């Protein structure tokens, strides 16, 4: 049985509610040693002078935060054919809290700004923060790079080496903490729970902007206020460099704190206790020999589960135990579905049945079996969920797919939805944000519980994804960079149209074969095999596909390009929600390499992660960004709305979509849903068993 999840460490040290105009924890422009609450996500937008910044900051660990920033510098170019045009820049920051604040010592942090990008904002720093009472905080530190452009007081390692930007996206580690360094300092004063005053002495002299004539620099002193509209919304206003005003908005979210009150779903059935054992007639097992009794019990269980949004896939009954397979269609937490099933079984099953074996299935595939004693359910209904968790076992489910004998009626086998969709493209310098909104019609049909037909058609209503008129100069096969042509000609479009077959070929093994129009740009056949023990943090998978490029109209035709692509994948769960993944193999353009991913998954289904891909395509061949990389966020509807739902909303911030490192996008990849029904996921979400 998987170990119970341990609560995250409480936040220690100086916690911030203030974000800079660059979108990271700090004062106005300068960093501090403050940190946000563990897991906090902050979305910021600010503008001052020629600078406009959109920033996503995530408190990755209690001591470690990371920021991704997209900046527009107005009128940046002042020579040549680009004169008067704006400059758009992507940058990444990291900050690590080295020391927490104590009674006598300050908190100390070390940070790196713009460490992988063009280097326009590159700088490093060491900063300390000390609080005096509940209202006053004093900050001071030393900065390098851009943070040493005003009044440097010394130098380390000789002059700061020049950085070869190239196509961008390269680590500039040769510059870190080298060259001139300069001091910066500041104070913040919390007037009340809403209002904070800030002042700072900045070591950033805006040398680049001043040289290009886009701003005036008169003073190193900056002044600002931060106003908390609500715990989630902050407004700030500043006077910067003695010459310009700035303002910003920060939206703060935390996956650990639901936006909507949870528990809006209907209450589950209470546990029904069995009659006294003195009633020997009630405890008899004569019912076992009657097929009519079995059929009646199945109907009662199926109807009751259906009202909960849970589908009965199979039910086997013996004199003292019941084995049931269910498909959870509603609850984001599998333990919640297991708990509700157990409650229903106490109402529907004869008293002689003591052992419940509840198997979660998806796509007709059994994932794991939770075995529990009925007497424990009766005794512990009002005890903490951990008490019942310590009494159950979670083990390997029988490696046999659910078969046709248990197919439900047509209404349950066929499902459809008509929903809005939004497609967004970021970071094209000529149009930083493009997007389409429209309607998406999707449908699924189960030929068998483990054989599924799926399709979706979408129609754009408004957008500008098709406005890209740039000539595609990629030297690689155009597996992704013709996206504008697909947007221009594919309206309406068949997003996908597939048949998928899922199986359990053996113990700890899962398989998938999908054939058809797999995604908007490619069709063909994809086969996958996954080894994943139910209680192991390690999983190994392999996928191979032969695909052919679809016509730009995204209907039924194909273009001339085809390729064999595939990857071997390793997954490892480090605990506390952190997992990593490596996919190595051949990509759509025929290039070879690997994708490295790190994700943090929360018990409520939130997921925040990042990835990068390096292949044998050179930075020059790849184009802007040098290699593929990105940040992804997945937010469960249940967290936002408070009502049960397995749906989620995902967003991905990535480099311009290029041809190098491009991977096939197939729905239903095994690990994405198999892990949800295994031991670690149960441990993390078991708190909802009684809900």
TrEMBL record:
Origin superkingdom: Bacteria
InterPro entries per the UniProt record, alphabetical: YbjH
Region (Disordered): 256-282
Pfam families: YjbH (PF06082)
Protein name stated in the entry: YjbH domain-containing protein
Organism: Aliiroseovarius halocynthiae
């Amino acid at each position: 049985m998987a170990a119970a999840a341990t609560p995250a460490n409480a936040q220690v040290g100086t916690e911030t509610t203030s974000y800079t105009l660059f979108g990271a924890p700090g004062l106005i422009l300068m960093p501090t040693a403050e940190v946000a609450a563990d897991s906090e996500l902050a979305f910021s937008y600010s503008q001052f002078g020629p600078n406009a910044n959109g920033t996503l900051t995530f408190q990755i660990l209690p001591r470690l935060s990371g920021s991704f920033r997209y900046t527009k510098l107005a009128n940046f170019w002042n020579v040549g054919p680009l004169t008067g045009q704006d400059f758009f820049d992507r940058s990444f920051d990291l900050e690590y809290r080295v020391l927490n604040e104590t009674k006598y010592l300050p908190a100390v942090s070390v940070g790196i700004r713009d460490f992988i990008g063009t280097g326009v904002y590159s700088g490093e720093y060491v900063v300390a923060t000390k609080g005096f009472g509940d209202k006053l905080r004093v900050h001071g530190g030393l900065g390098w790079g851009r943070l040493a452009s005003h009044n440097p007081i010394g130098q380390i390692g000789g002059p700061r080496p020049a950085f070869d930007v190239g196509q961008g996206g390269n680590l500039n580690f040769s510059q870190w903490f080298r060259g001139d360094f300069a001091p910066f300092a500041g104070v913040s004063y919390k007037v009340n729970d809403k209002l904070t005053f800030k002042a700072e002495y900045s070591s950033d002299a805006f040398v680049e902007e001043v040289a290009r004539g886009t701003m005036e620099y008169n003073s190193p002193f900056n002044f600002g206020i931060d106003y908390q509209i609500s715990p989630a919304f902050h407004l700030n206003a500043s006077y910067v460099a003695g010459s310009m005003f700035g303002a910003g908005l920060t939206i703060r979210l935390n996956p650990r704190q639901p936006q909507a009150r949870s528990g809006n779903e209907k209450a589950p059935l209470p546990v029904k206790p069995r009659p006294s054992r003195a009633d020997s007639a009630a405890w008899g097992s004569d019912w076992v020999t009657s097929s009519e009794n079995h059929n009646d019990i199945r109907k009662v269980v199926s109807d009751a589960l259906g009202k909960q949004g849970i589908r009965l896939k199979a039910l086997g009954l013996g004199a003292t135990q019941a084995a049931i397979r269910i498909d959870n269609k509603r609850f984001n937490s599998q333990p919640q579905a297991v708990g509700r099933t157990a409650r229903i079984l106490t109402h529907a099953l004869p008293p002689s049945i003591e052992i419940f074996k509840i198997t979660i299935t998806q796509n007709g595939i059994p994932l794991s079996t939770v075995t529990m004693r009925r007497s424990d359910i009766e005794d512990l209904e009002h005890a903490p969920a951990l008490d019942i968790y310590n009494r159950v076992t979670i083990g390997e489910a029988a490696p046999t797919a659910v078969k046709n004998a248990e197919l439900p009626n047509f209404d349950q086998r066929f499902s459809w939805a008509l929903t809005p969709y939004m497609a967004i493209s970021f970071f094209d310098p000529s149009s930083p944000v493009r997007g389409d909104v429209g309607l998406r019609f999707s449908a699924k049909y189960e030929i068998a519980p483990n054989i599924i037909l799926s399709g979706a058609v979408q129609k754009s209503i408004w957008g500008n994804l098709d406005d890209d008129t740039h000539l595609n100069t990629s030297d690689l096969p155009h597996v992704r960079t013709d996206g504008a042509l697909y947007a221009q000609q594919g309206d309406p479009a068949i997003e996908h149209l597939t048949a998928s077959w899922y199986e359990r070929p053996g113990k700890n093994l899962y398989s998938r074969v999908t054939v058809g129009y797999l995604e908007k740009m490619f069709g063909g056949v994809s086969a996958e095999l996954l080894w994943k023990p139910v209680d192991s943090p390690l999983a190994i998978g392999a996928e191979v596909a032969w695909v052919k490029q679809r016509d730009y109209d995204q209907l039924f035709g194909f273009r001339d390009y085809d390729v064999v692509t595939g990857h071997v994948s390793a997954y490892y769960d480090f605990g506390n929600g952190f997992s990593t993944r490596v996919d190595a193999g051949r990509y759509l353009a025929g290039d070879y390499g690997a994708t490295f991913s790190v994700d943090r998954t929360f018990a409520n289904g939130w997921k925040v992660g990042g990835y990068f891909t390096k292949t044998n395509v050179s930075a020059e061949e790849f184009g802007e960004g040098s290699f593929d990389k990105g940040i992804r966020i997945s937010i469960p509807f249940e967290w936002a709305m408070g009502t049960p739902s397995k749906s989620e909303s995902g967003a991905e911030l990535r480099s311009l979509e290029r041809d190098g490192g491009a991977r096939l996008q197939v729905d239903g990849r095994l690990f994405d849903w198999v892990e949800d029904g295994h031991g670690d996921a149960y441990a993390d979400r078991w708190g909802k068993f009684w809900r």
